[in-house]
Amino acid sequence: MTVHAYAESTSCVQGGALRFHLARASRAPLRGSVLVEDVATDLAVLDGEFTGPVWTLDVPPGWRSSLYRAVFTADEESSEVYFAVRAARPRSPVLLSIPFPTWQAYNRAGIPGESIYWSEQPTRASRVSFDRPGGGPPPERWEEGMIRWLGPAGYDVDYCSALDLHEGRGLLSGYRLLMVSGHDEYWSAGMRDSVEEFVRRGGNMAVFSGNTCWWQFRLEDDGRTMVCYRDAIADPMAAVDPALTTVEWSSAPVNRPENGLTGVSFRRGAGTWGPYMRLMHEESYTVRFPEHWVFEGTKLGEGDTFGRGAIGYETDACDYVEEDGVPVATGRDGTPPSFVILATADLRHWHRYGQGGMATMGVFGLGAGTVFTASTVNWGNTLHDPVVDRITRNVLDRLSVRAGGWETIGGADEVGALTVFDSLLYGATRDGSLLTREVSGQNLRWRPAGTAPALVALATPREATAIHPIGLYGLTADDRLVYRDPEDGWTTLADGPRGGVGLGMVNGELFAAATEGLWLLDPETSSWSLVEAGTGAVALAAMNGRLYLVDADGRIRTRLPVATPAGWTDLCDAGGCTVLTGHAGTLIGTGRDRPLLRRANLLRETATPQGAAEVPVSAG
């Protein structure tokens, strides 16, 4: 008869010990062989024997952090037990979480009283134990493709069980990037709280998963029992602590949409199940923001399709509307306003096969961190596709380092001056047009807003003063200071310094960068005085009580807005920008033949991430 086995934990640290419990349905002796394999490489790391109901694995300190499989065999029949080996000390900036809770939720699916599945059957269990055989990956092996790709692709990452995230603040603090992959459907409140805090404090998250964080579950019995009623009426916790009720995260009484963590939700996603699951291999993503760093090196253009088959049998999406042909998240479903849609798949025709909806790939800022989501279950199993491979590398390379860098938020439109007024971004083109668009990371189109008198710089006061009302202030190519009232046209206020290239307003005072240096306007006489000579500025902006300058070496420098010479602090590379403005802690810039860019991380650079070379790939 088959030997049955389970482990006392879903993970073990390097140098630690993990106990396995074994049993047989017959009275045959409990003895046999045990083979331990590294799932990422299929290499055997231990070949031994077991006797009796308990077998202890002493994990050598030298075993690599990975997902492992222990195969217990007796009388030519075997039982598999999966477990993760955690790094004793972080040796990689990247941590990959294995979705053991989801695996356990599907364990013994369809057996009354023994599984959280199937879906809405009244005989499904509300409590299942980790102290039982099974709980390994599903037959489709949603996670296996990513696990097998990482090492050969050059990424040496650390592993953990998703249950390690339940009280995982200390664990996560040693990493720069958390990865989830495949089908990571079940999250406890502790898991979500730990990960959200990690990202808000500056960590990053890459979600190569679909149907992510859909159900909330609780842990009981020292973490060995998984509780998920899927029903607020049946769950006694609803009357004690409604926030811990085991229902969908977006459902009452929890009302905490997973969009707040991942940017997307299965609520607006799609699913194709049973005999129709094969349809996922016919679907592809459509590019909606080809200039974004996620698509760097793919050579994809607007409207190109990619990743056929990466659209898994379950996808996540956000509510969005089309504005001038650009998808814009509405936020009505809990998606953060900073969410940027990169690609979409229209799967509404799946309503015949399970659930019709969409898939939306995107990225957004959460606190000081960044979250990327592929929004699909099968991403990791299509990494043989050059485009899927390259996008994955772009995400891992960028989010596994501290520096945020510049990111594209719009196309190249030959804008020669920028400012933000009334929460709108204004740009003046070199042919005399005034344009406007929302301040957003999405690739929105510019809209006409009037004319501009050959402007070389723009600025807007944070608040009005008796001398300088709210409006647009500009320097012209013929050295004039001009002003545009929100409801009127342009008027000349005074002469400008010779050769002006930048303008900044701080506390009602006007600073200008020009040929000879940094100038300050006297509001009483409307004359300019030289504050500091030889700055070498090619652009100037002001934000939050500071001046920001682009110098001739292509660097961003900053100083306080005082009327005397002061030291400039070197911040970061200017990203090729020769036009600059600032808003809400973020620099926005552009340059000739450069796209519209922004940079939110204004800490001084300590290192410059290495760029990746292009790979030849084809769309579709």
Helicity, as a percent range: under 10%
Spatial sequence of strands, sheet with the most strands: 11-9-12-14-25-24-22-18-19
Shape: elongated
Rg over alpha carbons: 28 Å
The percent range for strand residues is 35-45%
Measure the end-to-end span.
Answer: 50 Å
Tell me the number of strands. Answer: 45
Average of pLDDT = 94
**Treating each run of at least 4 consecutive H or I residues as one helix, how many helices?**
6
Describe the main β-sheet briefly. Answer: 9 strands, mixed
Unreliable sequence segments: 607-620
Q: Based on helices, strands and strand pairing, what is the structural class?
A: mainly beta
How would you explain this protein's 3D organization?
The relative contact order is 0.08. The longest helix has 14 residues, at 386-399. The strands form 11 sheets. The chain has a 9-stranded mixed beta sheet with strand order 11-9-12-14-25-24-22-18-19, with helices on both faces. Strands 2-8-7-4-5 form a 5-stranded mixed beta sheet, with no helix packed on it. It is mostly beta strands and 620 residues long. A hairpin with a 2-residue loop joins strand 35 (502-506) and strand 36. Helices cover 8% and strands 40% of the residues. It has 6 helices and 45 strands. InterPro entries: DMFA2_C. This is N,N-dimethylformamidase beta subunit-like C-terminal domain-containing protein.
